[in-house]
User: Fold this.
Amino acid sequence: MIDRARVRAIFTAACAEPDAARRADLVALCCGDDLELRTEVLSLLEHDARPAIDLERGIQQAHAGVPDRIGPYRVIELLGEGGMGVVYLAEEATPHRIVAIKVMHRSRLTPARRARFEREIAALGRLRHPGIVPIYAAGTDADGQPYFAMEFVRGRPLLTWARETTASIRARVERLVLIADAVQHAHEHGVLHRDLKPANIMVDEHGHPRVLDFGVARVHEPGSVDQVTMTGAMLGTLAYMSPEQVAGRGDRQDPRTDVYALGVVAFELLAGRLPYDVGSASLPEAARIIREREPDALSSLVPRSGTDLDVIIGKALAKEPARRYHTAAALADDLRRWLDGRPILARPPSAAYQLRRFAARHRAVAVAAGLALVTLLAAAVVSSIFGIRATRAQAAEARHAAAARWQAYVAGVAAIESALLVPDVVTARRRLEALPDAADRPFEAAHYAGQMDGSTHVLSVASPEPGRPHQPGRPGHDVVYSVAWSPDGRSFAAGTADGRVILRATAAGPGDEPAIEHRLDSSTGAAVLTLQYTPDGRALAAGTSGGTLLVWDVDSGRERWRMEETSWDAVCAARPHGETGIGGLTWYADGTLLAAGGGSGRIGILDGATGAVRTCIPIGPAVIWDIVVEDDVTLLASTGAGEVAVASVPESRVVTSFTAHAPGTTVLARSPDGRLIATGGRDGVVRLWDRATWSLARVLSGHRDRAASVAFTPDGRALLSTSSDMTARLWDVTHGSTIAILTGHTAATDCGAISPDGRRIATGSNDGSVRLWDVDALRAGATVVTHAAAVTALAESGTGLLLSADATGRVHLSDGIDGATIATLDLAPPIRAAAFSADATRLAIGAGAASGRLCLIDLRTGVRRDLPAGTDASLSRLCWQGEHLFGIDGDGMLHAWRADGTPRWSVPAHTGRGVALAASPDGRTLVTGGFDHLARLWSAADGTALATLSGHEWVVSAAAFLASDVVVTAGYDGTVRRWSVGGRPLLPPTTHDHPVIDMALDRSRTRLAIAFNQPHLAIVDVASGDLVATLRSLRTAPPRITWSDAGGRLLAVQGSEVAVWDDRGPGRRAADRPALARARAVGAEVAAAAIRATGGDHARAHAIVAARADPDPQTRRAALHHLLGRALAADAP
Amino acid sequence: MYTGTMASTPADAGDAGFSATVYGELRAIAGACLRDQPAGHTLQPTALVNEAWLRLADRPFSDRRHFVAVAARAMRQILVDHARRRGAMKRRGDRERLTVCDPAAPDGPAPLDVVALDAALHALAAIDDRQARVVELRFFGGLNVEETADAIGVSPRTVEMDWRLARAWLSRELS
Assistant:
């Protein structure tokens, strides 16, 4: 047996030796006396030099010879070969003429498809248009291969013509009009070209364009699935393929696919190159480019083309067919308008649409690299679009005022969305204020408004002292440079740029304004850079940029002592570097000593009682920004050189130092257990270091500008950083992840501190404010309900009662505002369906798989009934209409019950699973959707089928009635479609990039929320069908969504949690908590009183409470919830 | 050192359904090119594999590396099946040659017989599995050296040497 490894080694070595003789020697040497091995290697080397096979060539193209005759035609030569066939130049005897013959590959026309081929040829034969190359005849050749003969066009391909004649833009556009006319003619005869490209367009001797090669065209029969072009994607040339074609959706093609190709042809004809460069891209990459990348603006490539051609070609090249010209004629018409100098009909894509695509494409950049770049660019897009619009639309101005207002609104919301992604609340707020109809904020505007400030309190430091002139114009006057919490957490202090210190007592409730305790003044006019309470909280030390250290008595507000840094010179051996100024100071744990340092590069250890300097430690030439006292002998300091220095106090020297950040402000904090050191730098990065080894433990990236302060929470599990990017961030120390981004400040946020109980944060900013934040609310984010397992069903009563059920069968009934539990039930999993009646008096829950059950709850009495549902599969969805309950199940059966659960009727509605169900507002019609790709309409009275809505190409996952006669359906194919109750499509479908999983219409029927298999939600304006917002702050794709209350709140399942999108940020939520708690307490009393008054009759108690006018709605709701909770507990089986 | 066997591509090991899907898709595409094909026809494995990838790219599997391994195997199967069928139809051993060399280069290597190549590859796999895989990926999958290296997780240099050795070995076997 030959050792293959040795063969390989010797072969490899020999290959490296170019000289044949020396190679033979090498092999002989290596193989020694192993003859077999030597023979093998030499034999392989020989075949390597002259291989008998050509593997490199792979499986390649091969030609048979050119046939002599095809049918009655004498073949002259081969003209070309394409994916669909071979084209020959041939001669016909009678009439004597030269023809082009295309012989179709037989695979395209197996016997089963012959009929179709014949219909196609017949259709092509019907095409009589000067712009279309006519077909003379069709037949089969000797081998039985179908062919057709067409006019042989003497001329040049379109691009060659343009290049060789150096045609003007106008001449080119004239040709495009004629081409579009020809395509329109074919469309009118039911023929799509599907392979339009310049190579298929000849310009004849008279300069007329002639479209040929309708070879892959098919007879356009709506609803038929195209088999002939099953191999679809590759037939056309990639660059001319529409996004839907490259997505492989062969049966989705319609005339607008040709319109797209015309757009590409037009672009290439005018610009001399393709709208996107797909040349060197791999095929999937090219497909991605076509689907995602926006074409370049034509006007940027062709100087004199003007913006109107941009708009026309941009419209033809729109990614979504619905945004294109719907016909080639419409494209031709606009091109004619351009030629005639008349106003074109196409509108530029709305600013909102462009922004949306822009933001979608740049989101990663926006989030990662950030800055206000996205916002700036977005703003530029808006202005340029409005600029275009202004020059164009003066005449139509009045007519389009409402539309323009609406577009401005949508564009504004998109700009807000982009700005909040950065996050740049200044821009977002400006855009919000500029929104038309600013007072009446629809859901998305209210939601974004709520996201702009997550703090619970905003406290201004701008108000000057009485008798002290406020100098608003003076830079830095209103700036907060330092903030500190008192050790008892009762108050905090803020230091300003003009040397004031403001002490405030935090109020009892988060809703109350903290009262000012003291206003202290260093009277130095220099900025208070650092503040620190003594451990006992009785004194407060401040360090100023002027080099003054002050200590005040907190209770009296009187100054205990002050000391100039320059007075250290007597003690310090080291001369001061640079300026004076105290950047960092810290008390020793027992409060007897104080370490301070700053611009002089020295740390002084001072007597806490007198300020007398005891020791002086020279750190270095750079400014000292933060000091941490580790123990009696060790100090840490961070410097403006980006260094962290470890200093020995007894030795008065730096023991070790290392560079933690790029030079610039560097801040420092120590974890409560002393094991971790956090540093923040000018680069915006926060680093966590293992104190024992000084190895880098974690890098916290996210800030887009200087990290200006860092602080650990008392439990050491989280870290606060503030930044010049206007935000602060709360980080999870263990995972290095962001817990929350604190947005609200409108300028660089220089300082932050966490209260000793770890529940509140104070931040100070150059915007002249201190903001307070609630840590629990920041942590909770948008979560209202938390389950132990994945949430599978979600429903809301419209009155703030929220139902969520999880995979274990646990059902939570909770207050939809704050998630407070009202009751829990345990039913058989799976629970996929639950519905409240419109008047919020009844609740139905579908539970269990085979022979599932229906749990019916009367919300007035708490009486609960568990009945067999009469289904063989689990219920996918339930809905009420008046006194009737409807449900659709996993077998596609549609069921109807009376309110008491008595079955009325059941009909088979879908093949496969039924998933979507909705009832019309007038109660007469039901719509269902299923895995059979269909939506169906039914009589709610008896289950009679009314209409089948076919058009979706995948599962119909959600449905709703926009009105009693308008249905909207959505599916995994990513489309949202509107239908009349007669079953007619009302508008072209809206296409989204991802499968639609769920959809919810708010009660006012103004907004449609759409959930995808992606972590975002789309908000669509019902009236216009426009996408007005994309909510991106989701962690996972939401399988279920629902609106709450009057529509101001959108709830979505997030794994095992339910989260809410409303007009509140964490600050507002925290601020609402006390009021909610009060309402709940009062509500419980009201409920208890009602139960007492009615002798425990829940129904009457409910009626009494519901009818009461005096408690506020909040309290009444809490009382009703309380009653329900008690009733359900009493009725528990 | 590579120790896997040809039968244990990730697809075979993990997900038979995946192989079936890719095979089905490629069959559909290649079938149209191959079925009852006139003598002159175009068959470009790279394009076919890419088209299959394009069609399947939105589906749950998106690891291209995984995909091409399966696709190359599927292409091999499809081509060999096809050639076998053609051979059977023509009775006798005069098998249809799927590829002929460039007619303009008469001194070049002989036309390649896919069925014979397949048999030789099986033999090669028995003595050096990785070399056989390299040939499969490059010849049937249309991958270049770098892509092949990426697909089997070795360096391009290794692929080059495997290819050279395999080519020499197959050349001897098939001549």
Notes: Residues 8 and 122 of chain B are 15 Å apart (CA to CA). The mean pLDDT of chain B is 64.
